[in-house]
């Protein structure tokens, strides 16, 4: 990671995602990690980066991932959600040590940063969350890290069951140690795993903690039909309806998946300004289904995009997720139902809104943090057409990312980690 924080990109094709959604050819100046000027022929004096013929985009935002699961890649194929959790993921998570989880996180971050991800919103396991903060700190990425909260559940190893009061006091310690550290680059989230692994007490107390400290409340919800049926048979109502009854929906709540909302539940999400993370590859790989993203966007629900963990994807490539999200929306709601500009938005400004960080990231605007990526569109797979959004979503690849910057610090140059 290169610490210097002042640069000028010259003659880039800039996809801004500013309020006017401008795309223009020109310069972007960065001082001390902040975007200070955007325009043509700027007279910024700092280190010049020749971006002629290159695309400059807001850094990609992973709205849902599990860094602790990177080392489980290929160890849990061919299973649906509950057997996947019970027979593989939970036992593997229970075996993690602080060192193994750090290595798993670094590996996942390396893959993501090289592909242009500048922010991750990650749900970790029950223990060793401090190791993941350390990995994010060392890798230079912007991150919202949560410790999984689980105090009950069928098939959960004993090691992963933690009484809610103990979990909350650990959360308090993590909050004190890591929240807003590294120049505000690292934040903590409150992350109950899902309704089936959390008592009512845990969910209520965890949400109160999130509200008290103004934190994102991030959980899985309605990923799989069997999960939704189990919630209904245990609790007598819909999964998302249950979260609403407990008062845990709201503008800082991020629900991952929402493949199986029941009648009226998308309305609850919209009314409460709850956010959604869409993980298309995972939803197909675990055989869960296809989320109704076009409908969510039409209703004004903010949606981000995620790879989920490497144990259910099995890569952490948002370029692939963008293309798949576009294809699935076309299949589910008709061709053209979600245009490529909106799809790129899921991985940039929409993602920033989904994780509650759009005041600082998600677009290239003066005053925002310099989280940027430079992409080389010279390869044969980019040639033809003049719609950059279409080319980015349908043609772009992770390997086309040449430069990655977070907070004005260079993490990738010439396609290599530095
Ligand atoms: Zn997940």
Automatic annotation (TrEMBL):
Ribosomal protein listed as a keyword: no
Keywords tagged on the record: Hydrolase
Entry-linked Pfam families: Amidohydro_1
Domain Amidohydrolase-related: residue ranges: 56-408
GO MF term list: hydrolase activity, acting on carbon-nitrogen (but not peptide) bonds
InterPro entries linked: Amidohydro-rel, Metal-dep_hydrolase_composite, Metal_Hydrolase, MTA/SAH_deaminase
SUPFAM superfamilies from the UniProt entry: Composite domain of metallo-dependent hydrolases, Metallo-dependent hydrolases
Official protein name in the record: N-ethylammeline chlorohydrolase
